[in-house]
């Protein structure tokens, strides 16, 4: 048997032992709504664990979110709408689109700024504290820490033909909402949903962070009329590169 690679040194080491039962949110630090046992999503997650050949896999955190498919370049707004399902009256994508247009954040639904997403989250998710995570390439543990403590995370990355993270310099920029964290002997994996699939995705955290760190510019195949790009560009301080938005529940 070959030796599995260790997790990145900058990340906290995953647990070495497999728990006796697949249960989410056993830590007392998680909010009550996160302390759930995998039920309807269990089969799908187990298939993802098998498909990725994850050894000693433990679901550290999972939050059930129903998929919403996007219509046009609305992936960020769709991700935020999915996050709002924690509320009795979740916000719709059309509501978010209208607000984003009024504020000058978008023309067609695109959102090229984590700051813009944070502003919308503060307006429509009042029971969650938006926290912009920065320098993810040098501090990836900020992302795992947020997930392990019950936050949902909205993160931009480059989407490949199968929607997995890739490196296209931002030309395939896409948004996903991270709803789960898996620790294994291979390192950390994240469970994600996004607006181009009804299925739960499972990606190596390293690949996602690397993809996030390569977001430098918008693609050349732009929507007629152009997109709203923040000052400093996609790779700037108000853009997408190296950044994500954690939504911490107030408890």
TrEMBL record:
UniProt keywords, alphabetically: Aminopeptidase, Hydrolase, Protease
Any one of the GO BP annotations: proteolysis
InterPro entries xref list: ACTMAP
Pfam families, per database record: ACTMAP-like_C (PF21646)
Compositional bias annotation for Pro residues: 1-17
One Gene Ontology term of the molecular function aspect: aminopeptidase activity
Catalyzed reactions per annotation: N-terminal N(alpha)-acetyl-L-cysteinyl-L-aspartyl-[protein] + H2O = N-terminal L-aspartyl-[protein] + N-acetyl-L-cysteine
Region (Disordered): 1-31
Protein name as catalogued: Actin maturation protease
């Amino acid at each position: 048997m070959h030796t599995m690679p260790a997790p990145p040194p900058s990340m906290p080491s995953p647990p070495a032992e497999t728990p006796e039962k697949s249960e989410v949110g056993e830590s007392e630090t998680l909010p009550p709504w996160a302390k759930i046992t995998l039920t309807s999503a269990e089969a799908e997650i187990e298939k993802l664990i098998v498909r990725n050949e994850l050894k000693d896999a433990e679901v550290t955190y999972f939050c059930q979110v129903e998929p919403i498919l996007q219509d046009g370049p609305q992936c960020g707004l769709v991700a935020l709408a999915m996050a709002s399902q924690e509320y009795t009256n979740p916000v719709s994508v059309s509501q978010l689109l209208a607000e984003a247009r009024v504020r000058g954040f978008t023309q067609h639904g695109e959102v090229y700024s984590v700051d813009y997403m944070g502003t919308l989250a503060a307006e429509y998710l009042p029971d969650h504290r938006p926290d912009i995570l920065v320098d993810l390439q040098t501090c990836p543990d900020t992302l795992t820490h947020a997930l392990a403590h019950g936050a949902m995370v909205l993160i931009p990355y480059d989407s490949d033909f199968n929607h997995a993270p890739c490196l296209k310099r931002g030309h395939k920029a896409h948004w996903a909402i991270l709803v789960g964290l898996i620790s294994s002997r291979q390192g950390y994996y994240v469970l994600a949903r996004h607006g181009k699939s009804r299925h739960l995705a499972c990606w190596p955290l390293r690949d996602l962070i690397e993809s996030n760190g390569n977001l430098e510019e918008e693609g050349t195949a732009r929507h007629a009329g152009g997109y709203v790009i923040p000052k400093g560009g996609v790779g700037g301080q108000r853009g997408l590169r190296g950044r994500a938005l954690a939504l911490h529940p107030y408890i």
